Amino acid sequence: MTSPIIEASQKHPKPQDRTFAYGTAGRRWGYRSLLDSVVFRVGLLAALRSQKLNGKAIGVMITASHNVPEDNGVKLVDPMGEMLEASWEAHATSLANAPNEEELVARHEHLISSLKINTSTPAHVILAKDTRESGPALVVALTDALTSAGAKYDDYGTLTTPQLHYLVRCLNTQHPPHSEPYGEPTEEGYYKKIGSAYAKLLQGKPRPGPITVDCANGVGAPKLKALAEYIGKEIFDVRIVNDLVDQPSKLNYQCGADFVKTQQRLPPASQVSPLARCASLDGDADRLIYYFTDSDGTFRLLDGDKIATLVASFITDLVKSAGISDLKVGVVQTAYANGSSTAYITKTLGLPVICTPTGVKHLHHAATKFDCGVYFEANGHGTVVFSHAAHATIASHSPESPAQASALENLQALRALINEAVGDALSDLLLVEVILAHKRWGPKEWDSTYTDLPNRLVRVEVKDRTVFKTTDAERRLVEPVGVQEKIDSLVGKYKQGRAFARASGTEDAVRVYSEAAERGEAEELARLVADVVV
Ligand code: 16G
Ligand code: ZN
């Protein structure tokens, strides 16, 4: 008898000459024909993951984030809305690379026995996709797999990546032992939760002026519209640009958070007056960056580092004002964080900083070490996580004055506003808007908290990026032997110089980052380090 999995898999065969690996953030392998078998096999793994965790809901998101429209990718979401547990990435890679159907079934069965999975446990998977053209066909591959594995699934259609993370967490916190569900497990529930927290936090505060948001011609556009409609123009006056979701070739093209961050300029479609607040999302709305043009027309970027410092300082003040003394706030960054931001956090804010390797899973994990961990990558992906103890303190603390009571209420609303499951551009956008309103700051006041060191990021094509091995949160190379010494001696020649080289997790290249006291020096340092690496 042929197994249903073999039969279904035959419709989604693996291209013979390809090897796949679960990357920094799921998998991103270009072109739909290549991904078809990968998505099918990820579907099988999602069902196993759910069974292993006693039928908890597992998420599958089909997106390639900020990448070109022809790309696509798929990632799994664990029960509390986190990224897939790292030890399972190898299982994904193993299934994706099985050369044929028989071997796929053999590997699938091996996983069942080695992981001691009870296959009579009902599996529950929820799925969504971004606006890419290849999305619907990949959903077919995914649902074919889930059907063949006998898993129950719910297709939520088109969502932002963080919305899917939110839904997974809601579904898995509805019942004991969870005392409080994360929210209603619907798209409307998401808008309700963050929208009403936003309104609460703005009570009695100056109404924020208009903000222009570039939605990268992606899924963020219709979702931000829905959110804005829920909140109302009175307190959320958002002007959306780059919302052409019905033209898939425009996705992330000359717009979006990655474009603005790497090009350090306005998306051409944004026509804004000096000192007006602007923000960009990426293609699946899990990254956010702010920017503005100065009175003299200079472009000013307010990136993930600036968001992290703003949020960390606000929460620290709020905790203090609420009269809570035993809640430790900390910040998590990567090697890409500007040196000035790190100095500002440690010296001015007096908060601890942890540096981790690139990739949300590393940052998120490190952030859970604090009572309140603020993490952002410079590229704009990040959020805040609270420990169980912090949640309990915030919920039960008794204020001793009206001022403390109001700070405490704000802290409680902040917990509802923040999407703790994952970096979420829509929730982060509301968060920044709230903080600027509380501080009565425009973008210029925010920008002036510290000045970024001039920096440069270059992409270097190398023969084999796998030979580059790093240590110390990717800040130093251990292999190829001798290269780090050369980088050290170059860095030593520049005032406030810092540089590192690391293999990209998502592209076939090495990235070199440098900073120094002067722009020309930062650029020269990047060039010289790139020469050493190539
Ligand atoms: C992925 C990561 C992002 C990281 C980037 C680095 C997630 C959700 N996304 O986009 O955090 O900054 O990869 O790419 O983990 P790179 O390894 O090519 O430099
Ligand atoms: Zn993204």
Task: Provide a compact summary of the structure.
By secondary structure, the chain is of the alpha/beta class.
Characteristic terms for this protein:
globular, 534 residues, five-stranded mixed beta sheet, binds zinc ion, Alpha-D-Glucose-1,6-Bisphosphate, Chain A, domain 3, 18 helices, single chain, binds 2-acetamido-2-deoxy-6-O-phosphono-alpha-D-glucopyranose, alpha/beta, 40% helix
Describe what this molecule looks like in 3D:
The structure is a single chain. With 534 residues, the protein is of the alpha/beta class. It has 18 helices and 19 strands. The strands form five sheets. The protein has a five-stranded mixed beta sheet with strand order 1-3-2-4-5, sandwiched between helices. A five-stranded mixed beta sheet has the order 7-6-8-9-10, sandwiched between helices. A four-stranded mixed beta sheet has the order 12-11-13-14, sandwiched between helices. A hairpin with a 4-residue loop joins strand 16 and strand 17. The protein is globular, with a radius of gyration of 23 Å. It starts with a helix and ends with a helix. 2-acetamido-2-deoxy-6-O-phosphono-alpha-D-glucopyranose binds at residues 24-25, 65, 358-360, 377, 379, 381, 504-507, 511.
